[in-house]
Each structure stands twice: as structure tokens, then as C-alpha cells.
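User: I want to check something. If I give you two sequences, will you return the structure for each one separately, not as a complex?

Assistant: Yes, each is folded on its own. Here is the first sequence with its structure:
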Amino acid sequence: MLRQTKLAVILAVLLIPVTVHAAFEHERILNADIGAPILDVTANPAGDLVFVLTPGEVLIYSTDDQTVLDRIPVAGPFDRIAYQDEDRLVLTAAKPSRINVIRFSRIFDIDLSGRAVKGPPDARVTLVVFDDYQ
């Protein structure tokens, strides 16, 4: 009898649903007024770039700087966007049935003020060498 009571208590404890309360912390990473209808949104895996598809263009937002880095003009009525690989965006449209793959490259500005330079400051190409003579 005692054994059956122990078994009944163990089964009761195992079968009684346990209420678990979950909580989430949240942080607003990007808050922007787009100024145009948003058709779709995607982000790169690192989460530092957000691509917003609007009619006629893709806006590239930096979550670090909270600014628009660039705008890519888009010809056609696309309504979906997806991030692919490291340098591609895939745009699709349901009607008419279309797909457009855009390759992009990020260009970084390098501040050369106070550095030794050779040639005109408005040259189309600038080569920068970082050396450590220690």
C-alpha cells in the first residue's frame, strides 16, 4: 500500500503541469521614419544593416549610426526583399512575376586629414598603407 502511495505521488508530481513565467528584455535597435510605404524588410546576419524595400528604391539603414547609408534605385513593382550571401539582395514581385538580384559593395571612408599624402586630394583612387615600424 505504501509503495502504491509513493508511486501515485511521484506520478502526480510528474504529471502536474508546472507554470513557468517567461520574461523578455528588449532594446530598440532602429527607430526611423521612412516617409514612404514599406513593402518588405530584411537584415544582414550581423544585424548592423537593415534593408527596407519601398516603391522605387531600397533604403540601407545602419543600426549602429541610426542613419540611411545609401539608397538603391529599383525599376519595377517589387514587393519582397531577401538578403543572400554577403553582397546580394534578391527582389521579387508576384504580379508581374519577376526577380531581380542586386549585388552591392560597402564603401568605407578613411579620414586622411593630418596624414602624409602624395597627389591631388580629389583623386579618384586613394591607396592607403598602414605600417607599423616597431
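And separately, the second sequence with its own structure:
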Amino acid sequence: MASSKKKCIIIGAGYAGLAAARTLVGEGGDRLEVVVLEAGHRVGGRAHTESLGQCGYAEFGATWLHGVVNHPVYEAALRLKYMDGTEKERAGMQWGTSQYVLEGAAAALEGADALAAAKAAPANGGGGGGSSAVPAAAGSIGTFVRQRFQQLDLAARGNVACDAWAWRERLQRAIDGCHTTDDMNAASMAEYHELPGPNIPLPCGYQAVAEHFAEGLDIRFGQRVERVRYDAHGVHVTVAGGAELAADAVIVTVSLGVLKAEHEHMFSPPLPPCKASAIAALAMGCVDKLFIEFGAAVGPAQASCCAVMWITGADAVAMEAATDEEVCRGVQGVLDAFPAISLAGRPFRVRRTRWGADPLFRGSYSYCPAGARAADMDALAAPVVSGPSPNPGPGGAAGGQAAPPRVLFAGEATHRSYFGTVHGAYFSGQREARRLLAAFGVHSGAHVLSSIGSA
């Protein structure tokens, strides 16, 4: 006898895929069969924590909790006792010791020069890096940041002001993921919403929470999807090696970068023109980190320490293509150019991210460039429905019901208000899972696995 269960396949075990799976399992109960196919060999996607030995753990991907109120990862970390709730009060202390150095200077900036550099930090109006205060009329984020910077009236500081502007513009690239702030659409950023609360790191790392969210789910690693065929009867998903899985629907949570590179040959039939246009219009940024592990100093006893360099845009793309030796020479060049860092003569090794070159991600996070619209994110999020429902309608007539969605899309790039964030990815996974539950008419009322931070 054929099973009456509905079956859903989720492609990707990042935060969007994990949220979708937990919601389907938790709210659909035993009336759903849910399988997660992950091309890699870990969960978390672009949120990835690794050990740096004596330096502890480091976030190779997502770094911050952007706000804490109603943040699913923060709530989970509290329940798991990875955090204790006092982090909100201590957040401001993390930035109190920031120092600014100029190329060639033997010491950090002091006095009026240091104050001028510090004043450049919140020039986007968000204070903590957000851009929700950006007016759509600004045109581009670059225009807005320049206007705010000019209002600071730092001209009297001469070269310090010029260097502060260059630093501030590069910082904005890292925040928003764009190659240049002039290519970042201000209209889309005007719709970005910030969760209340500070930007704070996760002491346990994003990886620990992702692994908790993955508990109890049917996640199959090393399953890279090559083909998704869909019609009015369901979907067939083919993975590398030729194995095929059938289901009633599929939730696709791969990154925008992967969709850009592979959607034309991944989906059969091809995605609707409006969906393909949205994929083409939106952009995937490249933001990388270089983790520099310094050994003990030669001479006076000094503990090992670590530093991190952020690199964005075309420079990040070039770094990813460079050899390890070339990267180390580049890092040494930076250290030599800034003697105030006081790390000359210390041996070091470099570990780097390569999000753009990684075929499972093809970039760091999405943004809406000039020429694109926030509505393109909505188009990317829209489900694909194929044909009339094969189920009998009232009185036994075929096609009497609205066709259920067959191919659904989640991920940070599909969230108009929280794009570029882990919580945006998580919320989008919940959104698509509940869209599918409503279409299937499956509601158990249970919220076991989908409850934030539950066991």
C-alpha cells in the first residue's frame, strides 16, 4: 500500500535548510517525510567555525549576531547556555579599545587625529553597521556614506581624513558584501530591517548552534544535487553519481552564487523568466578573512596571538586565486607597512577563506546592486508551481484544487528585510516550510523541533 505521507527534499544544510527541515518535522509531525541533501560534509553553510589552536575558535564565515531580540540563534544559544543574557549589556565594551594606525607610522593615532578616525566609523548612520537609516533617494550606498562623511567636517585633519574615508568605504564593502559601495542600491538598503539590540559574536561559534539545530534530522552529506526535474505530479532530484530521489516538493536553499552559476542546467523545465531575471539582477559579494597565527616572539617571552584581516571585492577575488606563498608575502607587506602593529619579527602562518572560489557557495552574501530592485528578492523567493493539481477535485473531477508549489526557494538572498544575515536565512527557511505545510494542508499543531533552541 502506498504511503500517504508527503515527502519533501531540502537542498542544503545551512541555516535556511536547517530551519526549513525543523519546521516541517516539528509542525508537520509524522505526516511528512523530510530529507536534507548537503553537498558538503558539515552543517551551517556560510556560517562555519574552526579552531585556531591556542587562539581558540574563529568564525570563518558569519561573524555577528545582528541584533538579539527575536533572533533565533541568540534564543537558541541562551537555551543551550552558550550565552547568559548579559552579553547585551557588555557589547559596548568590545569596541572601547579600538586603535587606528597610519601606514608608515610608528605609533597609533592619538588626540584629535584618533578622534577624527573614530568619528568615521558610524558614518553610515547605523552605528553598528546597519543601513536601515539609508534614504532611497541617496541612489547608492557610496553616495550616502560620502555625504555622511562630509558632514563630519574632518577636512582640518588633512591626510588623516583621507585615510579615514578610504578605510570607512572599505569597511562598508565588508558590511554589505559589495565590490564597491557605488554599486550598492540604496533603495534596497532602505528596506533592510535591523533586529533590536547590539551586534555581538557567539562565544560558542555559529557551528555549535547549527549542529544543535541538525539533531534528529535526516541529513545526507556528500550529496551534491545536479538536476531538479519537476511537473504537476512532483519532483525528481538527481545527485552526483546518478542516484535519484522522488518527492512531492523541494526547497532549494543553495546560495545565490550557486544559482547564478548552475540554475540554467539544474532545473528542468527551466525556471520561469521572472525567476531567472531576478537571479541575474541580484549580486553575490566576495568577502574573505585572513587569519594570522603568530608564534612566540623572538627575545622576551610573549604568548602566541592571532589577528584577522578582512578583504573584499576584487582584492578578495585576487587573494583567492593567489598561492599560499603569495598570500604570506602580502601579509608580511602589510605588517611591514604598519610598524605600529608591533609584530615585526614574529613568525606566523596564515589560514584563509575562499568563499568565492568554493563551488558549493560561490560568494559570501548577497546584495542588491544598481539596476536591481528589492522586488527582485521577492521574485527569487516566489515558489514555482507546475500544472494543475493531479488530485481529484470536488465530485471526483480532476484538477479541482489549486496546484501546490513544487520548487520553493529559501536563503538570505530571498529575504527582503534581512538579506545578508543568518537570521534572514533562518526566517526564510521557516517561511517556505510553512508555505508548503499550508499547501499540503498538513498542520499538526506541534512545535517540537521548530521551537527555537528546543532539544
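Because they were folded independently, the notes below concern the second chain alone. The first strand starts at residue 6 and ends at 11. Residues 115 and 210 are 40 Å apart (CA to CA).
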